[in-house]
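[Discussion] Sanity-checking designs against the backbone

I'm trying to build intuition for which residues belong where. Below is a structure token string of 191 positions. I'd appreciate it if someone posts a full sequence so I can compare it with mine line by line.
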């Protein structure tokens, strides 16, 4: 899978997004890198660098995380929020959704936290900003730029009459990312 680095803070993965958590280290979703025989990071200049998946959880719900290493790629790391997301809080989903259609430039969609991890969403943070293919693994940030969650899922729900509710989008909470990084002995910024 190829990864393009069009900004200083994020990289594009063939079907996902990753972001820096420490110099040379990136977080994305397990489902973004699962089954890949190799992971490559491609700069806008066309230069390609190999990345290594150094840790990955099972890819289900709040465990859908992977840690990549590319020592030659050093970018500004995101700061993980120490505060849980608040219902109604304004957020932005950042990534590279549908890059084959929308292009390889970074996209950002604003929304709100529509469900907290305490709600019945399997421990995920629910947001009303869309998460589509290519955006998985990208950061969901607050208006100060702190990581609240990692974009991971979209649910299409039907009510008992078979009528579809608007899509519900979810992310792995930042405190789960912090625990994952701590288990790897990885330093990270808190805010």
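Best answer:
Here's mine. Compare freely.
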């Amino acid at each position: 899978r190829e990864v393009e680095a069009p900004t200083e803070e994020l990289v594009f993965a063939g079907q996902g997004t990753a972001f820096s958590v420490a110099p040379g280290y990136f977080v994305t979703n397990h489902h973004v890198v699962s089954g890949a025989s190799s992971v490559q990071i491609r700069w806008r200049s066309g230069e390609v660098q190999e990345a290594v998946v150094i840790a990955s959880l099972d890819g289900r719900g709040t465990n859908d995380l992977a840690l990549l290493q590319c020592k030659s790629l050093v970018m500004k790391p995101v700061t993980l929020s120490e505060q849980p997301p608040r219902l109604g809080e304004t957020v932005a989903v950042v990534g590279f959704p549908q890059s084959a259609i929308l292009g390889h430039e970074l996209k950002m969609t604003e929304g709100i936290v529509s469900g907290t991890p305490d709600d019945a969403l399997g421990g995920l943070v629910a947001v009303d900003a869309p998460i589509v293919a290519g955006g998985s693994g990208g950061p969901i940030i607050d208006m100060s730029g702190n990581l609240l969650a990692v974009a991971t899922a979209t649910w299409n729900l039907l009510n008992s009459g078979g009528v579809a509710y608007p899509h519900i989008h979810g992310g792995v909470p930042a405190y789960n990312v912090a625990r994952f990084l701590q288990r790897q002995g990885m330093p990270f910024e808190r805010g």
